[in-house]
């Protein structure tokens, strides 16, 4: 019987084989390259820096919008530009209540990204907000999987 881990490793191997050729940082299997693959297997330093900056800008667009319009709710409702938390009026609303637990989920979710981006000042502010305002002592059913994948 093939274990789930074995299947996962096979899938990862195939994904890496399909997407990470040549100079790719994840090319741990060292697949041989054709001339065309070599040409398109990596990006220039300028392109890498541009993509890095674009990623940073997109993160801060979402994070700043959440902090301005939604905090301390769990997430930003992009259609109404307002915060969204659990639906206490309708406990059977699984689309909302399956994920949101009334504990500033997006703020907690953003902590690791702030650290990775090296934004020590905003990271300190966010940690302070979590310490001072977030409580897990609530009558709320939270799907651990949904919260963990964020």
TrEMBL record:
Annotated SUPFAM superfamilies: Seven-hairpin glycosidases
One biological process term in Gene Ontology: carbohydrate metabolic process
Primary site of residence: endoplasmic reticulum
Upper lineage: Eukaryota, Metazoa, Ecdysozoa, Arthropoda, Crustacea
GO molecular function: calcium ion binding; mannosyl-oligosaccharide 1,2-alpha-mannosidase activity
Official protein name in the record: alpha-1,2-Mannosidase
Pfam families linked: Glyco_hydro_47
Cellular-component GO terms for this entry: endoplasmic reticulum quality control compartment; membrane
């Amino acid at each position: 019987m093939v274990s789930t881990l074995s299947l996962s490793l096979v899938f990862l191997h195939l994904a890496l084989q399909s997407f990470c050729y040549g100079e790719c940082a994840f090319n741990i299997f060292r697949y041989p390259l054709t001339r065309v693959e070599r040409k398109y297997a990596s990006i220039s330093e300028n392109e890498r820096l541009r993509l890095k900056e674009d990623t940073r800008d997109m993160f801060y667009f979402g994070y700043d919008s959440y902090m301005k319009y939604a905090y301390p709710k769990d997430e930003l409702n992009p259609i109404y530009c307002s915060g969204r938390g659990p639906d206490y009026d309708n406990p059977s609303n699984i689309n909302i209540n399956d994920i949101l637990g009334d504990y500033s989920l997006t703020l907690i979710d953003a902590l690791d990204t702030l650290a990775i981006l090296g934004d020590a000042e905003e990271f300190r502010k966010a940690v302070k907000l979590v310490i001072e305002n977030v409580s897990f002592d609530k009558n709320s059913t939270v799907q651990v999987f949904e919260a963990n994948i964020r």
